[in-house]
Amino acid sequence: MACSHWRAERRCRAGLALLLVAALAACGPGRRGSDPPLGATGRQTAHGLPELRNPFAGDAAASAAGAQIYAQRACVTCHGNKLTGAMCPSLVNQRWVYGDDDTTLFFLLRDGSVALRGHGYTRSGQDPQVGDMAGFGRLLDDHELWQLVSFVRAQQLRAD
Ligand code: HEC
Q: Where are the domains of the chain?
């Protein structure tokens, strides 16, 4: 058990190295999305972030587009092709590291887990931390980030 966890951790780190290469290749300054992000309700969360709602919630086309991005943008490298977390946390179990609301998931995908903790989020501690999730805001625009949220949620529903 300890061994397989150790192996998962190593693979996760290998994934992080791969991601760094992808991020350097993208090389664009700043973020691709808008500010405030697409889906802003105009309210603020307890963490001082703009509260967001996925504008594509329940949209099957958005989820299908998210599936493509998931495969192309290295998500699959760390979270596995069934999203069960071959190397990093499962995206289809009932446990969420920082929370499962739209705002949290969007900012986790856009800015990464270090930035979330910078906003006062704490890890739930139910899953061992194998690494940090990098932000994808330089590679993906708001629309694409929401498509990923739609895809992850659709897979979650399917796993129940
Ligand atoms: C380099 C490995 C890596 C890549 C690539 C990666 N992630 Fe992650 N992801 C992680 C790690 C590690 C965590 C947990 C962070 C923590 O524990 O603080 C995480 C957490 C998450 C979570 C929260 C899971 C939960 O149970 O709360 C979601 C959702 C997620 N990632 C989606 C994605 C998507 C979508 C992509 C592609 C855009 C992606 N990840 C790419 C490593 C990665």
A: 2-159
What is the tens place of the pLDDT at every residue in 56-68?
Answer: 999 999 999 999 9
Q: How far apart are the CA of 75 and the centre of ligand 1, in A?
A: 7
Question: What does the alpha-carbon distance between residue 12 and residue 72 come to, in Å, rounded to a whole number?
Answer: 17
Task: Decide: 105 in ligand 1 pocket, CB within 6 A.
Answer: yes
Residue 41 CA to ligand 1 centre (angstroms): 25
Q: Which residue minimizes the CA distance to atom 13 of ligand 1?
A: 133
Q: Could you read off the pLDDT of 4-51 as tens digits, one per residue?
A: 455 666 666 666 565 555 554 454 457 899 999 999 999 999 999 999
- Nearest ligand 1 atom to the CA of 116 is 18
* Residue in the block written with tokens 């300054």: 29
Closest Cα to atom 8, ligand 1: which residue? 133
Query: What pTM was estimated for this model as a whole?
Result: 0.86
Contact yes or no for 139/75 (Cβ under 8 A): no
| Residue whose CA lies nearest to ligand 1 atom number 22 | 91
Q: From CA 92, how far away is CA 158, in angstroms rounded?
A: 9
Residue 42: what are its φ and ψ, rounded to 5°?
95, -10
Q: What would be the CATH architecture of the domain defined by 2-159?
A: Orthogonal Bundle (1.10)
